[in-house]
Amino acid sequence: MEFKREPIFSGAIRSLIKAIGVVLGIAIGVAVAAAGFAIVVGPNYLPPKSTPMIMPDVQGNRDLLPATDPAILCIDFRGEIGMGDLTSEKIINLLLDSQEDMLKGRVKGVFLCMDSPGGAAFDSDTIYRNLMAYKEKYKVPIYAYVDGLCASGGMFIACAADKIYASPSSIIGSVGVLMGPAFNFSGAMAKYGVNALTLTAGKDKDELNPFRPWRADEGESRQKITAALYDQFVSIVVAARPRLSRQQLVDSYGAHIFIAQEAEKLGYVDSSDSDYSQALRALVQAAQIEEGKPYQVIRLTPPRSLFSGIAKILSPVKAVQSALGLGKHEEFAGKFLYYYQP
User: Is 293 a catalytic residue?
Assistant: First the structure.
């Protein structure tokens, strides 16, 4: 009996088609399930609620207490601002959730747990301003505890805190603004005889177009915005950190980062030798919760969409980017950033 062998290329194409078929089948199944779920549940007029989690108090207790006991709201800022759970929209909804249901009227203080290199300038600013409005509206203290990195947009948000505590190995600072880098390929294109045409209406609509030579004043409007954002950033830092003068921050410290001990000497933080319990104890005292009186520390986590997570997993491009470690900061492309990037 004679067996015919399929060419390797044909077999590879056949396997690829099968794989694409499986992915499409799963995607269609998920879409159908989502549509059915929407029909059953009906329209949603309010965003999903944040997920509460009981965190340890100063003594390490995590018992569920009665809804009449005071509470400390814990918010994690771990990761890039403006991405994932740390978009301004999600944090605003989280703050709204903290005054509803099981936490309504109970929050006596806000505890910011910081480990962030910063991120999008607009998200950082919006989160900061909403924290300040929350503090003013509900008359509660806000304390920050840095355990890792509190740089740029992280520092911006931490300025909403009345006190900033840090672990000894934490790194703080990087007060600055950046956008880009932007690349220009016009020289390489000219070398290989490649031309590009961009149709625009409006003066300088194609500013920083990478496919044509840049003018001497290219990017000037963006530089003005960068300078204005930097001035706002500096003003907020020196207002929140009275031991830091504007002149020192602009002329000497700049966008540098500092180990916690040096950051305390310069005035970026109030304590550089703290841990979670010490920082939390100080907040409980500032919140005027009587010593010995039980209180609940509750961390709220923004809701996550099951279907959006599945969609990312099913995307071949996303899968390849994730495997290669690429595309991590594509959400930051073209944005003004308060971001520390080593």
Answer: no
